[in-house]
Amino acid sequence: MSKLEQTPPKRIDLQAYEQYKARNIFVLGVLFVSLILIGLLSLRAGSYDMSLVEIAKAVFGKAADSKVNTVIQNMRLPRVLTAVIGGFGLGISGCVLQAILRNPLASASTLGISQGASFGAAFAIIVLGAGAQGSTVASMKFSNPLLISFCAFICSMGVSVIILALSRFKKITPEAMVLAGVALSAMFQGATTLLQFFANEVQLASVVFWTFGDLGRTGWKEVRLMAVVVLAAALYFLFSRWNYNALESGEQTAVSLGVNVNRVRIINMVLCSITAAIVVSYIGIINFIGLVAPHIVRRFIGNNHHYLLPCSALMGAILLLLGDLAARMVISPVILPIGAITSFLGAPLFLYLLFKGGGRK
Amino acid sequence: MMVVKELDFQYNSSFQILRDIAFEALPGECLAVLGNNGAGKSTMLKCLNRILSPQKGTVLVDKNNVYQMPLYAVAQNMAFVAQGSQNSRLTVYDMVMLGRKPYIKWGIRKEDEKIVEAVIRQMNLESMAVRFVDELSGGEQQKVILARALAQQPKVLLLDEPTSNLDLRNQYEVLDLVLKVCRHNDIAVVIVIHDLNLALRYCDKFMLIKENQVYDYGSEEIITCESIEDVYQIAVNIHEIDGERVIVPKR
User: Fold this and answer.
1) What ipTM was reported for this prediction?
2) Which of residues 167-186 of B touch A (CB under 8 A)?
3) Closest Cα to residue A175, out of A240, A113, A117, A110?
4) Which domain holds residue A102?
5) How many domains does chain A divide into?
6) Is A246 a domain residue?
7) Residues 223..242 of A with a Cβ closer than 8 Å to B: which?
8) CB-based contact, B106 to chain A, within 8 Å
9) Which of A253, A256, B52, B156 is most buried, most CB within 10 Å of its CB?
C-alpha cells in the first residue's frame, strides 16, 4: 500500500478546488450575515420604534432606555430566537432525513411527525381540556400550553417510533419508510378531524389556532430547551457528514465504505424526530421549511454535506425569520399565521429556483 | 492475499444461492468470476465484504477474518465497486475523498489529501477534479468510482461488472488503468465480468460458477470450448488472433 503514497510528490493543480471550497465558504458566510441582518430587522419590526444600534445594545441588556431593554429582552428576542432555532432545527433535520432515507421528499411533515404533533395538540385541547380563553383569534391564550406541547411531542415521537419499529423489525426499505410516513400522517389527520367533529366551537377554534403555528408562545425557558436539543443534534449531524455523503452513493457503496447503514439510519431518525418534534410542539405546524431549505442551498453548493448541513440549517432559520417578518408586517398589527405564510411564500420561491435551473439535475 | 472457504448463502427462506464457494485471490493478480446471470456472482462479491451475511464460511484477508472486524476495518481491507453505481452531486475530488471515509474520524488529514491527489493523477482525472460527478460521461464516472475505491488503499478490490455500461474504447481504457494501478500496488482484484474476451485479455485466474457452485477454478487453461458450453449453455469456437484467444459463439 505504501507505494501509492510514494508516487512522485508533484501536486496536481488544485487551485480550482480551492476556489470551489472558497465559494462554498462564501455562501455559508453570506447566509450567516443575512441571518444576523434579518434577525436585527426582525427585532426592529413592531409598534415600538427604535434604532438598530439601540437594538444591538438591548440584546445584551445595555440600551440606555430601560423600556427598550424590556421590549427587546422579554418580547422580541425570544420570538426571534425561537424562529432562528426552530428554522435551524427544521432545516438541518430535513437535510439529514433526505440523506439517510435517500429521498428528496423526506421531511418532518412528509414523515407524519408534524401531523402526529397536531393530533397530540388536538387531543390535549379537546379531550384534556387545555383549550383556549379569549373571544377573538388575536386575544387567544391557551389555558395549559405546557400540556399541549407535551402531548404534541409525545404523539410526534409516537409516529417516528412506529416508523422506526417497522424498519427495524420488518426490515422495510427507505422508500417504504417514507410511504409509511405518508400513511401515518393521513391516519393522524383523520384522527384529528374526528376529534374536531366532537369538539365544541371554542375547542375547535383553539385547535385550528394551534395548528396555525405561532412563534410568540415561547419564553426564555422554552427557547433554552429548544436551543440545547437542536444544537446537540446539529453537532452529531455535523460529525456524521461523511456518512451522509457515503449514503448518497447508494446503500451498498456506503457499507463498502465502512458505514453501518442500519445503525446510522436509526440514530439519525431518532435525533431528527426529537429535533422536529420539539420545534413543532412549541411553535405549531410549519410544513415547508424542512423540505425546502436543503433543496434551495443544494442548487448553489451541490451535495457535499460538509457545506450542505450548515447551509440548510442557516437557510431554514432565514426562511422562518423572513416568514415571521412577513407575517407581522403585511397587515400590521395583525400577525398572520406563520405556518401558512412559510408555505405560501416559500413554495413560489422554491418553484422559481426549481425551474430557473432548467435541465440541471 | 484473500482466502475464501466454504461460503454458503441464501436469502431468508429461499433456495440456496451460493454453495461451498472457495478460492484464493493473490496480491497483484486479477481473478475473473464468470457465469450466467443468476449464477450468484454478484451475491458472492457482496458476501465477501459483508454487504450480505453468509450463513457459513470464512473470508480471510492476510489471515484476518473479515467477519470478525468492525465495518470500517473491512473497508480498509476491501473496496467494492457496485454495478451501475448511483452518483450524487459531489465534485470528483470529494467523491474520491469519500474513499478515505474508513480512515477519517473528524477532519481530513494531510495524508488523506496526498493519497487522493495521487489516485486522481493515476486515474488521469486531474482535469476534472472540480467538476460534479453527475455531469461527467459514463466512462469518466466509472473512473471516478474506481478512483474512490483505490483511495481506500484496499488489499482486495471487488469489481461488479465495471465495464457493462461503457463503450468499446472505455472498456479497455478503464480496465487498463485500474489493473495497472492494482498490479503496481499489489492489490488483489476479483472481477465479475460478462465479456469473456475482456476477461481473457486482462485476468490471470478464472473461476467459473454454475448453478451456485464453483464449476472450475484455475488459470487460462480452464477456459475451453467445453467448459464455456457447459457453463453458459451456448456452443462457442475459440480462435487465436494475433496471439490472443478470442471466444466467438457458433452460428
Assistant:
1) 0.90
2) 184-186
3) A110
4) 28-356
5) 1
6) yes
7) 239, 242
8) yes
9) A256
